[in-house]
């Protein structure tokens, strides 16, 4: 099911509201927010659900006994999951990046870790370089900004990646 730009923007606003609520109601915990990276106007399909299940499992396992709460939302605008942990913010960011960089589907995971002011912690803040494009290895922001790859190329890659993972 395709979504509109308005629906996407509304979902981002609701996500930010959830993030604010969770941080405000759990001031001594660190918030991680998982979304799945998928280009185009279809944000929920077989590939995103495979990636979401894998990501949720990887995060829960990595957080272990420090995991205090997990909320998930399977929406037409994309899967979202929120994790609260007793890990420090920087330790949680290092853990999130390790999952993004090390898991077979990690390139499809977007795991944000937030400060108390609901600001995402960047990879650079923990000494890591920016994420790379899943197709060519350039800095991902560069390819996104310049539309280096077509949506079809990216979706084909994602389909093959998830198919190989599911086998």
Strand content: 15-25%
The largest beta-sheet arranges its strands as: 2-3-1-4
Percent helix: 40-55%
How many domains, in number, for the residues?
1
Q: Which consecutive residue ranges, at least 5 long each, have pLDDT under 50? A: none
Number of helices: 5
Specify the CATH architecture: 2-Layer Sandwich
Please count the beta strands (DSSP E, at least 2 residues each).
Answer: 4
How far is it from the N-terminal to the C-terminal residue, by CA?
Answer: 25 Å
Estimate the global geometry from the Cα principal axes: globular
What summary fits the major beta sheet?
4 strands, antiparallel
- Gyration radius over CA: 16 Å
Look up the CATH topology.
Alpha-Beta Plaits
Order of helices and strands: HEHEEHEHH
- Let me know the average pLDDT: 96
Structural class: alpha+beta
Quickly name the level 1 CATH class: Alpha Beta
List keywords for this structure.
167 residues; Alpha-Beta Plaits; 4-stranded antiparallel β-sheet; 5 helices
Structure in words:
By secondary structure, the protein is of the alpha+beta class. It has one domain: Alpha-Beta Plaits (2-Layer Sandwich), CATH 3.30.70. Helix content is 46%, strand content 17%. The protein has a four-stranded antiparallel β-sheet with strand order 2-3-1-4, with helices on both faces. α2 crosses α3. The longest helix has 21 residues, at 5-25. The protein is globular and about 45 Å long. The two termini are 25 Å apart. 26% of the residues are buried.
